[in-house]
Amino acid sequence: MNPTRGRGPRRIWRRILWGLVWPRRFERTQPTISGVVLIGLSLGIGTAAYNSASNILFIALSLLLACLILSGVLAWLNLRGVAWELEVQPPLRAGQQAEVSLKLRNTKRFLPTYALWFEFAASPFERREPARPESTITAKGIDVWAALSKAEAEEARGTVHLRTRLDPGAGARLDWCFTPARRGLLRIELRGVGSLFPFGFLRKLTGTDLRREVPVWPAPVEYRRHAGATPRRPEGDIRQSTVGHEGEMIALRSYETGDSHRLIHWKASARKRRLLIRQFSAQNSDACSIWLRTDAGVWTRPEQFELMLSLVATVAQDLFRAGRLQATVIDRGQPVATKRLADLESFLDRLSQVSAAPAPAPGPAPGPAQETPSRPRQSVMVFEPEGTRGVAAYINGVKAAST
Description:
CATH superfamily of the domain at 82-127 and 136-217: Immunoglobulins
Mean pLDDT: 79
Shape: elongated
Low-confidence stretches: 1-6, 231-245, 364-377
Distance between the termini: 84 Å
Largest sheet: 7 strands, mixed
CATH architecture of the domain at 82-127 and 136-217: Sandwich
Radius of gyration: 32 Å
């Protein structure tokens, strides 16, 4: 005879009873207004029952206490066995509505789940070394309180309710929509899960550590294009006068979202069993690079600096869709070729975390405009302030766009 037989159910009930007496971390049970009234009524009936020794009052007291205990047990079973997963569909843009999805699944075998709500929060943050603990009484503490108040003001919160019953083994999907206030890194969290099931006497809350950290790209902006600013073509490049001629095909690349369908090479795509795009010499001759300079001495106004980043992001996307974006550079960094959609998204991710930098030391400024003996000078788009609020983009010293 197996000596361990029959210990499984005992252990299960032992864990259940211990979970009721000593709940897990971040779990709490609070009485609602009706629950407080029920507790007060129980105390009153209990006092009257002991003073009068009435069996009817003792029966009524036992029924009220049984309702409270049953409410707590059913609320605990209602949350038990529910798994959730957080999904965020990038990209996120400042000022545009974003959607966060929560996938639910009831892993219980017999009991369904009812009437849950989920508390979401989205707050901006920066990756930096943790600050030293400081008193909030000192002058620096006042700055700490101001920073906390600003963070709370920029934080977006929302609550989503489960309107239908979640049967055993079934799943559901809930969506929460919000609008990021500004660019930067955003931490999206599922703060807690709550339930009033079954009678509404007790509010059962459980916290979670489910979170996602995603970048928020600069907001898109409308800009005006100026005629006369054309990319510089290499010497010896003779452009055909035939309308619609794109030059010779020089390479094939994988299809990316936003590419024109007329550029698909169908025969090569059939051989490789994936979509391939034709690249022509005329497309390369029209290409230009973006050089972003974040000198704090030039961009003295924060709102103008944010407008510049929005213009850079919008122009970069338009140039990439047209096949004219060749490389991107930020300050004195190395040029990064932009051939795929992933390269453009990486550049926009870096834009989400860019801040105004101190003025660089005097010396040669490396960038996409640097000329080598074996490589002709390329066209470079730079951005400069225009007045006190506007921003302008220049190619080879000629204004190409402004906002």
